[in-house]
């Protein structure tokens, strides 16, 4: 799969795929799905890369599903297996806002979203922010005057990395489906909250 | 100063300059330097941007010092003030390994290195890693088989972001000069150690 991933983008590299693969296997029993299908699904779930700042962002799941279908069929999976996996991939994207429509989809959403929170989620968020940053519209770690959006300003996670925590990351733990994912999600959520607290203290100490 | 910073690079943006400025002011009394000179020094300390993966990396301090001299002279600073600031900027770079040779240099090293550890140091490290990542040599958050360099492998912080914690960040707190910087450095060091512990647990849970 690796040659089809965006070269040089750290948030969706082979390690992300490997971590989601591991969690998909782990969650397969609880989710009542075949571990082989869960693993295959993880390997193909991000085949289409659509940058976070693309107007087509919400189509990543659909495009990955289309590519996944071809790859899985070539790998010898049966038509009903391919259909179940591609449906799970199609409905997995956060930005599209779908609920999973089959058991594989439940496993994929949980595995993929676990990798979006906690320490790993933070690393991936910052890498995405730098990847999106352009001379004509430079990104920032945080908003100039209200880093933690304390004052109800609109969030803009294409402009500020920390905004992404409030726009998405801190909402993910509450939406986990399976018990093991809920428990791990709660741990990672707490780690992210801790990190934001540390950052808040550091920023407060860095004001003239 | 902002137009002279690398456009789109998050680790050395106007917020970095503003944070170092605030800490240079705060440390000026303890460091026995004029706060106006300390502030001016912070504003010009990163005028020359040399990417972390450039063979000229170690020359960033010297080049910034040269540019700073011209800017400060044009701003009306006296020759001896310009000389003291540019000497501090010249000797501030970690990669060059200089010790400060005057009181301003002590303040700048502490202020600049505080911004390199803790939560902020982590954000900046990850942004640098993504900024350096190229299709022909994609960066990673961590080494494939030994993320925390537990087994004595050589560190390569141009290839792996987390390696930068061990190659540089975790060494900075011990080298702080002024008492307030030592105390803040110890807090930020501890925060970074905590983060690495959380990441270690997450990675252990993400292995098939």
Structure, explained:
The structure is a homodimer of 208-residue chains. Chain A has 208 residues and is an all-alpha fold. Chain A has two domains: 1-105, Cyclin A, domain 1 (Orthogonal Bundle), CATH 1.10.472; 116-208, Methane Monooxygenase Hydroxylase, Chain G, domain 1 (Up-down Bundle), CATH 1.20.58. The first copy, chain A, has helices at 14-31, 35-44, 60-74, 79-90, 103-114, 118-132, 161-172, 179-205. The longest helix of chain A has 27 residues, at 179-205. Chain A is globular. The interface between A and B is large, with 50 and 50 residues.
Brief description of this entry?
Chain A has 208 residues and is mainly alpha-helical. Chain A has helices spanning 14-31, 35-44, 60-74, 79-90, 103-114, 118-132, 161-172, 179-205. Chain A is built from 8 helices and no strands.
Compile the SSE list and pairings.
Two copies of one chain form a homodimer.
Chain A: H1 14-31, H2 35-44, H3 60-74, H4 79-90, H5 103-114, H6 118-132, H7 161-172, H8 179-205
Helix pairs in contact in A: 1-2, 1-5, 2-4, 2-5, 3-4, 4-5, 5-8, 6-7, 6-8, 7-8
